Amino acid sequence: METINKPQALPTQSRDDTSQKYSHRTLGLARRLASVLLIVVVFTTAFGAASWRLDKAPDIFSDEIVYTRVSLRTAVEGALVWDSGKTFVVHPPLYFMLAGAFYGLTGDPSTPMYAPGDIFAEVYHMRLFNTILAGLTAVILFWLGKRLRGGWLGILLAGLFILDPFGLRINRRAMLETLAAFFALGGMALLLAGQENEPRAIPRAIWAGLLMGAALLAKELTFTAPLVVVVFGMWEIARWFRYVSKANIQTLLSPFVSVGIAVLTYSIYPIWMLTTGGWERFASVKILSLQRLFGLVQLSGWNRPGLSLFEMLQQRLTDYGSTYLILALGGAATLWIFLFGKEQRAGRLLAAWGLMLYPFYAFVALFGSGNDQFFYFLLMPAIVLFGYALFVPLGDSHQWLKSLLRASRVRVAARLIAALVLIAVLSYNITRWWTAYGVGIDNGYYQLAEYVKANLPENEPINASGDSIKFHYFFPDYLTTVASTPEEAQKSGVQYFALAPKDVQGRYGRITPELASWIAANGELLFTTHGNSYGEIDLYRIGAATPPARPLSSVEAMPFIPAQGGAVDGLVVGLLLWLGSAGGLASWLWRSARLEQKPQPSGEVKQSTEMITTMRPVKRGS
Predict the structure, then answer these.
(1) Helices 151-162 and 408-433: crossing angle, nearest 10°?
(2) Half-sphere CA count of 258, side-chain side, radius 13 A
(3) Which pTM was predicted?
């Protein structure tokens, strides 16, 4: 009897394999959703902390008026000009172009261009632009921490930044530093996220260079970021010559590619000034800025004549105590990473970051023009350095330190100290935020402007306390005088005096201690308020309520003149063309490198990654 062989079924995956793949896919999707949710939470928390009650605190700052008005003029007239009609060259153009675009999309279209308008409403609205940037900065810190050592480090870095009192002071104002630091941090984060032997090192470097170039176009003080990258690149080449390294040529060249792209990006700005006839003024202003930075000309800063650096630090410690602690811990973390974390590429770049920035800002504070806002550029590196040092991976050459840290008593003590420091910092920051911004009122100049509008006759002269520019906008229906001594005040015939003792102490404006004492001794106090930003703000009247009409000397009037230059059309076209070409090249190189990578089983990928992160270089000749 013939046996009929039945066709056998094709081999199929078992039900366990199918369910395992399904569970892996589900787990991966859940992790991605959790990451997206965390990013949304980080952004929302940072944006909320920075944007809550912007019209109540902090008080308006003179630079905010200047930057807001330049942004508005840039948006409406298409020219980078101040209200005098002249090209604004004190700072690069990127902030004013982006902030102006933001106001053009979201602001009041009836804002007058050739009149002061409601400067408080204008500045309060422009502050929203910075709060959005603060949220994005927190997201970068979270992403960077997650890339370096995992989600907990990302949460720590973002948490330290979101409620830092000094960071909030900058982010809640319409200042340049938030945008400039956002781009600089983004560029450094891309470089820190790179690997030892990465096939996409060059496209990553191009994107990082574009971001650092954008930072330079927002504020030139961010030149420290490309400088750090140059030093790091030289360090990497020195290691390559000393050791037999597996690093490819892309990895070695990538720091210099980043710096080259950053310099080329910034160069569009001086080329624009040269082609529009503003080179001479541009060059003179930039030379003066360098002289001020290095202390050759003292017009501002903590160490200008008549100020005590020690007293200034004491006052700042009251408001920003946790910030100073983080800055100090960042300095200590720099040394820790330099000593024990150099075996990883990210550790070397972080060590170079700290070793370059801390001496530079110490010099600026002691000898240069170290204005408060400068140190915002040190705050975020300090946060990253401190957080990374807590998670720094120790190499095989530090077995003795590993053994010491594995000891139960040492481990418990270290964790306890770190936990206490973090609890103290976060508790202080939360309390400080609540008292300063959650319930606090710090809009003394707005209150003063409302009082003057309701109680003083129009065109009545008011003597400025501090920078006279802000008084032109605070009191658009009144004249402004700038008498600095009792003799000048009596000669001018002015009766109403705004007085903020902080202006006198900080030597802001022309007012002298002699005039302040004379006002307090002879004047009738009409209005007073107190806030965190300026302390006490007073309005005095000296003399009769309705004096006889007489000519006034030293009366300043604010001109509002149409743009006389600084058209940004060519600048915008140049920047877009450069961004398109450089960004397109980076994208093409990125895709090409991705296609060249051969797919590997997950186990091999994991193994090769571990080899890259733990590999110790071997000395030549050994």
Answers:
(1) 40
(2) 33
(3) 0.89
